[in-house]
Amino acid sequence: MDMEQVKKDLGEGAVFDIGEVNTAFAQYFTGECYLKMLTLERVVTANVTFAPKTINNWHVHHRGGQILLVTGGRGWYQEWGKPAQELHAGDVVNISPEVRHWHGAAKDSWFQHIAIEVPAEGASNEWLEPVNDEEYNVLR
Fold first, then answer.
1. Which terminus has fewer CB within 10 Å in the chain: N or C?
2. Cβ of 19: how many Cβ atoms within 10 Å?
3. Measured between alpha carbons, how far is 5 from 120 in angstroms, rounded to an integer?
């Protein structure tokens, strides 16, 4: 990992440590991803850092939903059946429960966000299939 490039891409908003290689969920990501849990109490919050070209599979947060606070780099967010949205530091994505979606880095930039799991009784996360390469490759 080229830390100079990571720092350049993520910029000043990347104030949290990138953490460790995300081995726990690696099967649901297309490439290199890092995870730093910020809190496991009451509201589960994590700093997630994606290497260029790394995205996660389609997935659904049942009951609680998720909030993404983009802290650095350039990435993408897409809901099923809608066009992908380009993301930059300062963007906030509110993901309602039961919405099929994916998110991750642009092809040419590291990307980082704080992921907040919205608490709800019986909340769970369902991982689905990978994003189609053809769909991702058309994104600039």
1. C
2. 16
3. 38
Provide the token pair at 45: 């919050």
Q: Which of 81, 35, 76 is nearest to 53 (CA)?
A: 76
Degrees (nearest 5) of the Cα angle 18, 71, 30? 60
Convert the chain into a string of H (helix), E (strand) and C (coil).
CCHHHHHHHHCCCCCCCCCEECCCCHHHECCCEEEEEEECCCCCEEEEEECCCCEECCEEEECCCEEEEEEEEEEEEEECCCCCEEEECCCEEEECCCCCEEEEECCCCCEEEEEEECCCCCCEEEECCCCCHHHHHCCC
pLDDT digits (tens, 9 = 90+) for 92-130: 999 999 999 999 999 999 999 999 999 999 999 999 999
* pTM assigned to the model: 0.92
